[in-house]
Amino acid sequence: MLKIVPIIALLLLSGCSIKITPDTFIYQDEVVEKNLDLTDIKSKLDQQDNEIEISAVALTTDDGLTLKGVKLLRPDALANVLFFGGNGMKISTSSGILKQFAMLQLNVIWFDYRGTGVSEKKEALKVVDLQSDALAVFDFANASLPADIPSVIHGLSMGSLIGSYTASQRNVDALVLDGAISSVPELVDALVPSWSKIFSTVTVAPELASIDNIALMQNYRAPLLLLVGEEDETTPVAFSQALYDAAASEQKTLTVLKGTGHSQSMKMDAALKAYARFIDEFSLL
């Protein structure tokens, strides 16, 4: 869940002015975890997936932090996926999503964001650090995963901002935006009820306000899949529709999932079917 939600709740009660900064917008653990429980992660996969290999991965950032994550490999993989999770989404508590990727015959690399899960943290959190981390993670994945199959970036919720940025800086075969954010100011505006704006003022720090997924999509030309829940009130369908309309890609698909809320897409059969079609189609290009 976005950290901004409880802050807005307090705002509604106080009727004050509040500034949204990276420290208030982006989730950070008080104390990070030591290591991943690979046995527990493996147990969440289907028992018949005996050939799936699960391993821990790590890298050191330019500013000296250790980021940790997980790698899933299967011998019959159709593509490599670099997954950027949602705000506050940790491998230790959300590793069940790897089962869906495995069902789709995909290799996966997924790192916890700095200051979350098993990745180290610093006192100050900056957007540029997350962006730099994302490029380091991409380069790591590119060197660690098989080179003879396509590469896909999958960004969920806040990860859609990280994923689009990475795709703008690196060559990638395809991009999946799941419960995507169009821009941080639009997200904040959507989360604040209109009646409360009479009594309260919300401003967004410049480094967050400058994040514009629409602008990134205008220059994105590779295949694109957008997944969004019809009942998603955090990142509504309108966000994904705007990104779809803006994307320069000639091969783009918007899949709206009935009866689905925020961050629930990959649990839905319709999403997995759309994902499988997408992999098949761009693999033929």
User: Which term fits the overall shape?
Assistant: globular
Oligomer kind? single chain
**What is the mean pLDDT?**
91
Radius of gyration: 18 Å
Regions with pLDDT < 50 over 5+ consecutive residues? none
**Largest beta sheet: what is the strand line-up?**
2-3-5-4-6-7-9-10
Query: Any idea of the CATH class?
Result: Alpha Beta
Could you tell me the number of beta strands?
Answer: 10
Give the DSSP E fraction (strand runs of 2 or more residues): 15-25%
Q: Give the helices and strands as they follow along the chain.
A: HEHHEEEHHEHEHEHEHHEHEH
Pfam families: Hydrolase_4 (PF12146)
GO molecular function: hydrolase activity
InterPro entries: AB_hydrolase_fold, Hydrolase_4
Protein name: Alpha/beta hydrolase
Protein described:
The chain starts with a helix and ends with a helix. The chain is built from twelve helices and ten strands. It has one domain: Rossmann fold. The radius of gyration is 18 Å and the shape is globular. The chain has an eight-stranded mixed β-sheet, sandwiched between helices. The chain has a two-stranded parallel sheet with strand order 1-8. By secondary structure, it is α/β, with parallel strands linked by helices.
Task: Briefly characterize the structure.
This protein has 285 residues and is α/β, with parallel strands linked by helices. 37% of the residues lie in helices and 21% in strands. Strands 2-3-5-4-6-7-9-10 form an eight-stranded mixed β-sheet, sandwiched between helices.
Feature tags:
two-stranded parallel sheet; 37% helix; hydrolase; alpha/beta; Rossmann fold; eight-stranded mixed beta sheet
